[in-house]
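Design a sequence for this backbone.
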């Protein structure tokens, strides 16, 4: 339980609180404190977006629920000002560095110990002048000063002994401290603020800065103006950025200065266009540093990594995905012995300490290198987390969206992808706005929370070329390598299924047969089970988290086994109005490739509110009712036929609501014979006794000794059915509205079934 300090009590009811947890973005980087929304713990909070903040009570409850390391308060729009002094406190004895101790005395306001226990935070009030500076003090001590900044500060409640319990005005002191430190050192950039916000906290670094003056004219031209990208790097902006960062590191430029260049200079446009800017800013210098220190080790680490899979130690090989340039996938997994056998024909030369050159076998050298790329925690697909390395030793298979969310200039994201959205409303949902609203909120839920919705989308038309597959491909495109469209049933229900582990979306295009028990059970498991059983080739079976959102598209009449799981399927009625209209689809595709995909992702992430959306409140559409009807079998199918025909099977010659159990007339052998020779295999398998019991239990029929009726003075066993109107009403309650063949008939007919 986190206690709120008295000094901050006035802010408790204000919606400016977040929760945070440590996230390690690279093996050699210290963890950063990433803020999350207390009301939506899977979604990140933003320092500049008050809609992602909550009050203290909500934040404290979310933190107590687990999964977070603390709470914080966002200071934008408030009078809060603070000093954050790192590495100034001895965690063992609590002693402060003399400089920090003097600052606490000068401030004479509330101060507390930071989560690391090695720093302090001094909190007071500011006068409204924006300040956000990070400055070096002495040795490893740094002081960060902020007032009216787009920033959040962690709050521990662990007060410094002897400090006041109220907030004092520290605005004048802050100006003095910043000026004092400016006189002795150069301000550094803010390396902890979320860079995807393009905050002013990342300072511009002028070409005259001494850390950049040694780059040389060509490198400066490349960095400042992007000159040479086309000539020297064939237009590959990614390679140009990498080369520039490597040269900066060789020149001795600090990584914070490099990050500032990437945020503000022409060379950094490619980084700023990434779907996850923060991840790119952290990864580029990390990769470059490896390349500078040992180019061959860097080359091998870029392509290979060692990790445990299914109880075996394996080498995973990374390769470019041809459909999504810039995205890499694990394309092959080999044992250590096989990897060495493959690479030992190559030799690696290196310089020994005595200056001589030695050669080693490349495979054995890399496998035995202490700095080889290795993840002791294995690999997991964690799409709700953006960092590449989780908990310091687990590889996150989530690579991000394939495009960056961006709305067109002067327009909304919705306007930038309007043609596709019109297709969704008019074709996929046949103009039904309620169904379209559910469709888009389901898509937004998947995009915003990156989790399994547990509701499958089913799309069917008799005609081909109507655009149902087009819709699914457009949505899948946003997820890059984390979406797949399959036509082969083996890719869904097959034995070897490691491809399912890292998917958020799976589209089964004519790949499932509703009548197959194997396919039916596999589909239910993919939709409902939280864990997947993964069986790669040549390694042991293991389980993984299930993040799949399934779409099923088909031209078959019966394509979804929905009899008992109707609540798990959303099946809008698809229109054929634009079937094979190639010009229509060409225009949509043109808009998508001209910024429409970026606008679509922006629309899903930022313009659709899913806070009050219940994905399990699935509209019961006409197409869904149709699939339910196709899926019925056994006793329920028998009842449906009776209700539709308005007649009972093996009807008694005097009583229209009675089925004769054992008939004397060979033309009407009776209900037992009728069931045992029925075309529905489930009815025949159950046998007449079980069918009669189910009819009695589920549908109110009466059988046995109480159901004897007289025929010509004799007692004849029979199966008494409820009134037709009552039975139809029960059926509607269970399966929804029906279109009966003879709705005007409200009593049983006397004809044979």
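Sequence:
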């Amino acid at each position: 339980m986190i206690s709120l300090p008295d000094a901050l009590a006035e802010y408790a009811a204000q919606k400016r609180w977040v929760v945070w947890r440590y996230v390690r973005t690279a093996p050699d980087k210290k963890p950063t404190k990433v803020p999350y929304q207390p009301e939506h713990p899977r979604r990140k909070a933003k320092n500049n977006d008050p809609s992602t903040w909550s009050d203290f009570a909500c934040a404290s409850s979310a933190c107590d629920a687990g999964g977070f390391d603390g709470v914080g308060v966002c200071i934008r729009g408030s009078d809060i000002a603070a000093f954050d002094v790192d590495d100034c406190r001895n965690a063992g004895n609590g002693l402060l560095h003399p400089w920090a101790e003097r600052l606490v005395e000068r401030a004479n306001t509330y101060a507390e110990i930071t989560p690391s226990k090695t720093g302090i935070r001094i909190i007071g009030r500011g006068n409204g002048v924006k300040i956000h500076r990070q400055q070096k003090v002495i040795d490893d001590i740094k002081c960060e000063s902020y007032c009216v900044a787009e920033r959040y500060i962690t709050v521990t409640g662990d007060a410094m002994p002897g400090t006041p319990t109220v907030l004092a005005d520290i605005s004048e002191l802050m100006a003095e401290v910043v000026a004092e430190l400016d006189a002795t050192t150069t301000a550094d950039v803010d390396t902890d603020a979320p860079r995807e916000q393009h905050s002013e906290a990342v300072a511009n670094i002028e070409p005259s800065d001494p850390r950049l003056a040694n780059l040389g004219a060509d490198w400066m031209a490349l960095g400042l103006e992007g000159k040479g990208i086309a000539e020297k790097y064939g237009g590959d902006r990614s390679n140009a950025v990498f080369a520039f960062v490597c040269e900066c590191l060789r020149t001795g430029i600090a990584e914070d200065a490099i990050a500032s260049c990437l945020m503000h200079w022409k060379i950094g446009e490619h980084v700023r266009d990434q779907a996850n800017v923060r991840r790119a800013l952290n990864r580029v210098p990390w990769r470059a540093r490896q390349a500078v220190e040992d180019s061959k080790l860097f080359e091998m680490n870029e392509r290979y990594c060692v990790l445990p899979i299914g109880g075996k130690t394996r080498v995973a090989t990374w390769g470019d995905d041809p459909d999504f340039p810039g995205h890499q996938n694990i394309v092959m997994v080999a044992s250590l012995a096989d990897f060495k056998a493959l690479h030992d024909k190559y030799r690696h030369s290196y310089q020994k300490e005595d200056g001589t050159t030695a050669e080693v076998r490349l495979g054995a050298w890399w496998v035995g290198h202490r700095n080889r790329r290795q993840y002791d925690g294995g690999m997991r697909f964690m799409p709700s987390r953006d960092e590449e390395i989780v908990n310091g030793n687990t590889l996150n298979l989530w690579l991000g969206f394939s495009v960056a969310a961006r709305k067109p200039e002067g327009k909304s994201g919705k306007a930038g992808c309007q043609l596709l959205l019109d297709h969704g409303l008019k074709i996929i949902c046949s103009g039904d706005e309620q169904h379209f609203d559910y469709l888009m909120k389901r898509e937004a839920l998947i995009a915003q929370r990156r989790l399994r919705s547990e509701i499958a989308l089913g799309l069917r038309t008799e005609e081909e070329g109507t655009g149902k597959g087009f819709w699914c491909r457009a949505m899948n495109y946003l997820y890059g390598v984390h979406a797949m469209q399959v036509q082969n049933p083996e890719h869904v229900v097959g034995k070897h299924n490691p491809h399912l582990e890292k998917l958020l979306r799976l589209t089964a295009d004519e790949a499932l047969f509703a009548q197959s028990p194997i396919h039916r059970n596999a589909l239910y498991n993919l939709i409902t089970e939280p864990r997947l059983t993964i069986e790669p080739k040549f390694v042991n079976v293991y389980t993984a988290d299930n993040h799949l959102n399934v779409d099923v598209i088909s031209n078959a009449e019966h394509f979804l086994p929905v009899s008992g799981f109707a609540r798990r399927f959303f099946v809008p009625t698809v229109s054929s109005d634009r079937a094979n209209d190639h010009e229509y689809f060409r225009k949509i595709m043109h808009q998508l490739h001209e910024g429409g995909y970026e606008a679509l992702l922006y629309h899903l992430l930022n313009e659709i509110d899913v806070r009050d959306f219940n994905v399990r409140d699935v509209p019961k559409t006409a197409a869904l009712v149709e699939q339910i009807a196709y899926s019925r079998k056994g006793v329920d199918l028998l009842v449906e036929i009776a209700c539709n025909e308005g007649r009972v099977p093996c009807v008694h010659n005097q009583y229209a609501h009675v089925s004769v159990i054992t008939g004397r007339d060979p033309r009407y052998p009776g209900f037992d014979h009728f069931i045992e020779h029925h075309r529905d295999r489930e009815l025949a398998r159950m046998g007449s006794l079980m069918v009669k019991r189910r009819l009695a239990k589920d549908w109110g029929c009466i059988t046995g000794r109480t159901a004897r009726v007289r025929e010509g003075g004799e007692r004849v066993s029979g199966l008494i059915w409820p009134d037709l109107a009552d039975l139809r009403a029960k059926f509607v309650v269970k399966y929804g509205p029906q279109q009966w063949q003879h709705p005007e008939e409200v009593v049983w007919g006397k004809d044979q079934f």
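Residues 186-208 have pLDDT under 50 and may be disordered.
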